[in-house]
UniProtKB/TrEMBL annotation:
It comes from Hoeflea prorocentri. GO terms for biological process: amino acid biosynthetic process; branched-chain amino acid biosynthetic process. It catalyses: L-isoleucine + 2-oxoglutarate = (S)-3-methyl-2-oxopentanoate + L-glutamate; L-valine + 2-oxoglutarate = 3-methyl-2-oxobutanoate + L-glutamate; L-leucine + 2-oxoglutarate = 4-methyl-2-oxopentanoate + L-glutamate. This is Probable branched-chain-amino-acid aminotransferase. Keywords: Amino-acid biosynthesis, Aminotransferase, Branched-chain amino acid biosynthesis, Pyridoxal phosphate, Transferase. Its EC number is 2.6.1.42.
């Protein structure tokens, strides 16, 4: 039985409650963050806090809990649940109010929920085997840069890929790959350059993306931030995705086309190792 955090209280998970009038429940009017935990410590907490503030501000959502308080809550939950490796999920919604499209008054308290999930992040069977990707249309809204809890379409996209025997979906808008269902997408070209979609409203500005691109540049790898087509991806020598829960995760096929020799490639494996090493050093 986990201990979870709800609006100031640490409670057993089966006693945690949120109102049926919560705008997160009724309107998906909420934002979230997922921070990974290695050796009982938080990975890139400052990055996740920064993006949370941006999501809240883009949606004019009032939230009075400070970064220091959020850090203390994360640490308390990790400690109470004895979490060594896994994730901390945080969600903030605009709070509970009678159902209305108009936002409730500014003094309506936000809802804050956090819980932990145990997960083997380093020894990942999927990272060892490599992911099979299928491409599907990107039918999300045009503010994918805000990390909202509107996750129905990404969930449908992933299920579509699963129905075809794949592991995950890469989303395609106007013939160009935007990102994965819950991760950023990358290809490696024959000249060794790493290509990933440039930052815009059409992708989430991944915290892992930023750190992994910094690792790549430090390793003198060439990074090109631009859109790429599905055709280009199918003919890439390597492909991979990044996220807080998957770190760097190699891709071995796209729409049934084998990538490279059909095994996790050297660029993805190197970046995964270096990223994990760097994050272990910097976790708090
Ligand atoms: N894109 C999408 C759509 C995501 O849902 C996620 C993870 N939540 C990412 C990218 C990766 O972001 P991060 O590296 O911050 O986990």
């Amino acid at each position: 039985m986990r201990t979870v955090y709800v609006n100031g209280d640490y409670v057993p998970e089966n006693e945690a409650k949120v109102s049926v009038f919560d705008r997160g429940f009724l309107f998906a009017d909420g934002v979230y963050e997922v921070t990974s935990v290695l050796d009982g410590k938080l990975v890139d907490f400052a990055g996740h806090c920064g993006r949370l503030r941006r999501s809240l501000s883009e949606l004019s959502m009032n939230f009075s809990v400070s970064d220091d308080e959020l850090l203390a809550i994360h640490r308390e939950l990790v400690s109470r649940n004895g979490l060594e490796e896994g994730l901390v999920y945080l969600q903030v919604t605009r709070g509970a109010a009678d159902r209305d499209f108009v936002f409730p008054p500014d003094d309506t308290p936000a809802t804050l929920v956090l819980f932990t999930q145990e997960k083997s992040l380093i020894d990942s069977a999927l990272a060892q085997r490599g992911q099979k990707i299928f491409t599907v249309g990107d039918h999300r809204w045009s503010r994918c840069d805000i990390k909202t809890v509107q996750l129905l379409y990404p969930s449908l996209a992933k299920m579509e890929a699963r129905a075809k025997g794949g592991d995950d979906a890469w989303l395609v808008r106007d013939g160009l790959v935007t990102e994965g269902s819950s991760n950023n997408a990358y290809i490696v070209l024959a000249d060794g350059s790493i290509v990933t979609r440039d930052i815009s409203n059409f992708i989430l500005h991944g915290i892992t993306r930023k750190a992994v691109l910094a690792c790549a540049r430090k390793l003198q790898m060439k990074v090109v931030e631009r859109a790429f087509t599905v055709e280009e991806a199918r003919h890439a020598v390597e492909a991979f995705s990044t996220s807080a829960s998957g770190f760097v995760s190699p891709v071995i096929s796209i729409d049934g086309h084998e990538i490279g020799d059909g095994k996790p490639g050297p660029v993805a494996r190197k970046l995964r190792d270096v990223y994990i090493e760097e994050m272990r050093k910097a976790s708090i």
